[in-house]
Write a structure and sequence with these properties.
This protein has 16 helices and six strands. The chain has about 475 residues and is α+β, with helices and mostly antiparallel strands. The protein has four domains: about 90 residues, Alpha-Beta Plaits (2-Layer Sandwich); about 40 residues, no CATH class; about 110 residues, no CATH class; about 140 residues, no CATH class. Helix 7 packs parallel to helix 14. The radius of gyration is 32 Å and the shape is elongated.
Length: about 475
């Protein structure tokens, strides 16, 4: 007879040193009040002994009605126990938890249980318990091949949707479930991150104009329009030169009156201010001169130019960089930056995990556990950006001239943007289980570190594109 009892959620309270005097009454009260919680059918407590470090362990097991009740309790009651324990006893009592389930696998006789064709393990069902391969060996049809390729996308009960929905609406749940061993129901963390990042870059850099140009190409400009555009550019250049000449005359007059030094006039005439890497002036009508006229490329400035810049950015080196980037063109330059953004974000992940490690030195969590937190957060961040871009695109298609539709879509995008930092705070609370004030303090530090790290990694990506041309 098979027993269909629900899962057993076990909490081990590991006590460092002597047991606090109010811990036992607190534990008894916990067991008594737990039975009043919806979804908990029974509770039992016992001493688990002493671990290798000499710490005594008290075990509390909660018999839960079913998996749905367990999910609710994990986000509510069990999370409250974790947070309350940290507030009341600090680091003196730490919590370890796991979910226990009954094994209903029925052993089959060897003659009725074939071996897996992949690894040779004796099969106990339609899937191998060692490598996961299906037991059947016949070739599948084209339709079945397509179903396997896109099944996770269109099946509502697939691991993709079971991962995306809690990732979007329940901050920190995926991270906490993964750390507590509930992993099979979700996509692996790094796979989730990679899938959502690929989807984001496909959506963000997809240009529907390329298809519109095929269907309805824009008319080529007439000779009159080209001439008018050239005259406008020449007029703007002449106006800029006139303004510069007048400014120079005023500076010379101020120099004659002794109000400004001659160096100011010389710097203005030479176009110098401190030091700069000058790639020359570009012709706006010449797309090949993205960085400007490379014949004029040089490092300009005075004695304030740092020595390491003088050594690494000679005039010849700057001209080479300018020529290579001009040969690449503006569109390829932007594409190269976009190609480097995923690498910059991957570099950012361990940096932020290190910040979390420093913010939670007593959490007894490994570095990879902090890294997992940010893998899930970045996956959520990509998902939010995808939804915002799609919403803006749909609003543009439905009503490009409709102010009401544009206002509603803008409002939703703004609300979603504010939801991202709120999500990060709630995820920190859920995963690390500390109080509001302590979490808020660490949240501000983490946010500043994140913005700083993101800025430097993106600048590094830009510099890499410029110098690697």
């Amino acid at each position: 007879m098979t027993n269909h009892a629900g899962p057993l959620y076990e909490i081990n309270f590991v006590i460092a040193g002597e047991t606090p005097p109010d811990f036992e009454p607190w534990l008894v009260e916990l067991g008594r009040t737990a039975l009043d919680r919806t979804g908990i059918d029974n509770v039992r407590m016992f001493e688990h002994g002493v671990d290798s470090g000499g710490n005594s362990i008290r075990t509390c097991q909660f018999l839960v009605r079913d998996d749905a009740a367990l999910d609710e309790l994990l986000d509510g009651y069990f999370a409250e126990i974790d947070a309350g324990l940290a507030v009341r006893f600090g680091e003196q009592v730490r919590l370890e938890s796991r979910t226990l389930r009954e094994d209903h696998v029925q052993d089959l006789p060897p003659n009725e249980s074939p071996a897996c064709l992949n690894c040779g393990t004796r099969l106990r069902g339609q899937y191998c318990g060692s490598c996961g391969q299906r037991s059947r060996s016949r070739l599948i049809s084209i339709w079945q091949l397509l179903r396997e390729a896109f099944g996770d996308l269109f099946e509502l009960d697939s691991r993709l949707w079971r991962t995306v929905l809690p990732l979007l609406t329940r901050p920190g749940k995926l991270t906490r479930d993964y750390l507590e061993g509930r992993r099979a129901r979700y996509m692996p963390p790094f796979r989730t991150y990679l899938v959502l990042s690929v989807v984001f870059f496909l959506v963000a850099f997809f240009d529907p104009q390329s298809f519109r140009q095929i269907i309805d190409p824009d008319p080529q400009p007439t000779a009159e329009e080209i001439a008018q555009k050239k005259e406008s550019a020449e007029a703007a250049a002449a106006n800029e030169a006139l303004i510069r000449e007048k400014t120079k005359e005023k500076l010379e007059a101020l120099e004659a009156e002794g109000k400004v030094s001659p160096d100011v006039v010389e710097d203005f005439a030479a176009g110098n201010s401190g030091f700069s890497i000058n790639f020359g002036e570009s012709d706006k009508d010449d797309d090949s001169q993205f960085f400007g006229n490379c014949d004029d490329a040089s490092v300009t400035g005075d004695e304030d130019v740092p020595e390491w810049i003088e050594k690494r950015f000679t005039d010849e080196r700057v001209k080479q960089i300018c020529e290579r980037n001009n040969a690449r063109g503006s569109e390829n330059f932007v594409d190269a930056i976009a190609d480097n953004i995923p690498v910059a974000l991957i570099v950012l992940l361990p940096l932020m995990a290190l910040v979390l490690k420093l913010l939670y030195p007593l959490s007894r969590r490994y570095f990879v556990e902090h890294l997992l937190f940010f893998v899930h957060f970045h996956a959520f961040f990509f998902l939010m950006l995808v939804l915002q871009i799609l919403l803006a695109g749909i609003a543009g298609l439905l009503g490009p001239e409709d102010g009401a539709i544009n206002s509603i879509s803008t409002l939703i995008i703004v609300i979603a943007s504010f939801y991202i930092p709120v999500y990060l705070y709630k995820a920190m609370r859920h995963v690390y289980g500390q109080g509001h004030l302590v979490t808020l303090f660490k949240y501000v530090i983490l946010l500043v570190a994140y913005l700083t790290g993101a800025t430097f990694t993106m600048l590094g990506a830009l510099l890499t594109v410029v110098l690697s041309a």
